Input
Amino acid sequence: MKFKEFCEYLKSIEETTSRLEMAELLRGLFHLVDSDEVDKVAYLTTGEILPAFRGVEFGLSEKLIMEALSKACGLKVSQIETIYKKLGDLGEVAEQIISWQGKALSLSQVYGELLGIAQTRGTLDKVMKLISLLKGLSGFEARYAVRIILGRLRLGVGDATILDALALMAGGKELKQDIERAYNLCSDLGLVAKSLKEGGMEALKSFGVKVGYPIRMALAERVASAEEIVRRLGRCAVEVKYDGFRLQVHKEGQRIEIYSRNLERMTEMFPEIKASILKEVKVHSLILEGEALAVNEETGEFYPFQITIQRKRKYGVQEYAKEFPLKLFCFDLLYLDGEDYTPKPFIERRRRLEEVVPKGEHLDHSELFITESIREIEEFFENAITRGLEGIMAKRLDAPYTAGSRNFNWIKLKRSYRGALADTIDVVILGYYYGRGARAKLGIGGVLVGVYEPSADTFKTISKVGSGFTEREWVELREMLDRIKLTHRHPRVDSLLEPDVWVEPKFVITVNADEITRSPMHTAGRTIEEPGYALRFPRAVSFIREDKRAEDANTVEDIVRLYNLQKKVSVE
Ligand code: ATP
Output
C-alpha cells in the first residue's frame, strides 16, 4: 500500500466520532494490506512504532522537528514558529510549507524510515534522517508522519478497537475472544494481526506464550471479608500482599528481560534481580512473576513503598541497588523450558516455581498457606496488617493464569474502613476546569475523571476531583495536561459534563472517596432507566500513576461491585 493511501485512512478515522465506524474503517484497512504491512498498520494506528514494551521512542522534540522542517523547506525556524503559533499543530505546519509532490513511497518504506529515526542514537543523525524522509513526502503525508513522530496522532484508536477490527476482518465479532486471548499472551497487536493474516484463526487458536513478549497480567478482584473469600473459593491459597513493584521476569539462556505491571521494559532498573536469576535459576527458559520490594537486611523488615519506588529512575540505579537492595517475592510461573504453564492449575504452577527458583539474597517465594478456615484467614490478615503490609491475596487452587483479566481466581482483601469505600479507585483524567478563587491563579481547579467500560472501549465520567494535590502538583498536572489537550471531546469519552479543557484519556490517578452514590450527572453505569454512579467527597491520593495505562483504570463493573459491597458493609 502507498503511504498516501494509508494517510487517507488515517484522515477518515480522525474524522469519525463513532467507534463502530472506526472499527469498520480499520477492518477495511487491515483487509487491504498484505501480511508484511498489517503489523505496521496496527502499531501506527494506535500511535506506536513498535509495541510499547520494546521501549522504542522517537526522542525528537518539537524544536528539533522544526529544525528539520526548516532545513528541508529552506525557511527560517522563526518563520516556522510563527506558523506553528497560528496552527497549533506541527503536522499541519508541515502540510502547509511542503510544496513538493513527494516520491510516492510505500507504507513499508515510510515505516522503515520512521523506525530508523527512532532507533538512531544521536540527535543530529535523527534530524538528518528526518530531513531526508520529509523530502520524500508530500505535504499531506508529512502531516501524519510528523504527528506520528511527536506521538500526537490521537486517532482515539485503542487496543480493543483494533481487536474488534481484526475480528471483523476474520469473519465476525464472535471471533474476538480468540484474538483477544492471543493478544493477552503476547501484548503485541502487530504480531497478532500478522499471525491472523498469515495463518487465519487456526494460528490464533494455537497461539502460546513466548519468552520476550510480556503476558498481560492477571488481576485480582476485591472483597470485604475473609468469609466472602471462603464462600467464593473454598479451600484456597492465601498469600501476603506485598506493596512493591509487580515484575514479570523473562529468561532465555543468558538473556533476561523484566517488565512492569503495565508491560514496560524495565530490565535496567533491577540489576540485582537480573543477576540473581542468571546465577541461581538453572533452567534454560522461564517466565515468572513476583513483587519486588526493598527489605532491610538487618531486621528482615520491609521498607515503606516510598523507598522501593525510588528505584524507578534512569540514573543512579546501581547506587540505589547497593543502598536499598530489592528482593523479588515470586508468586507465579507462566512458562518453563518450552512449556506454556498458563493453562495449568495454580497449585501446580506454584509447586514447580518453588522447585526451580531457589531462595536467596534477592529471590524468595511469596509467603503462602492453604486453608479453608475463615478464622485462620482472619488471623493471617490481622498479622499482615500489624506487620505493616497492605493485606492478603487469596488464590483459587485449580485456576489457570487468566492473562489480561480481573476475576475471582485471585482475591485481594485490604484494610477497609467501616462506612468508607473498601478500596481506593483508579480513575482516568478526561479534562480539567480552570478553577475559581485562589485556584484561578494556578489555572486549574479540578479535573473531570472517569472509569473504563471495556465492552464499549470508552471512558465514562464518575466525578470531579478538586482536592488531594499540593499547589506544586496542580501546576505540574496542568502542564502535563496541556501537552495532551484536545479541541473537542475525545471520541472514546462519554460525558454529560463539559470541562473547560478536554484532554486525551491518558493519565490515571488513584482517588479515595467517602462513598459511591447514584447521580444523573455522570455516565458511569448510566442506562435509560437508571442514573450513573458518582464519588462523594473524592480526593486524590496519588499523583499520576506511571504504572497504569488509561485502560488499566477501574471499570464500571468494579464500581458497581464496590457500590454493592459498600451497601453490605453499612448494614453489618
Ligand atoms: P491491580 O494491580 O489489581 O490493578 P493495584 O495496582 O491497585 O491494582 P492492588 O489492587 O492493590 O494493586 O493489588 C494487586 C497487586 O498486588 C498485584 O498487581 C501485585 O502487584 C500485588 N501483589 C502483592 N502481593 C501479591 C501476591 N502475593 N500475589 C499476587 N499479587 C501480589
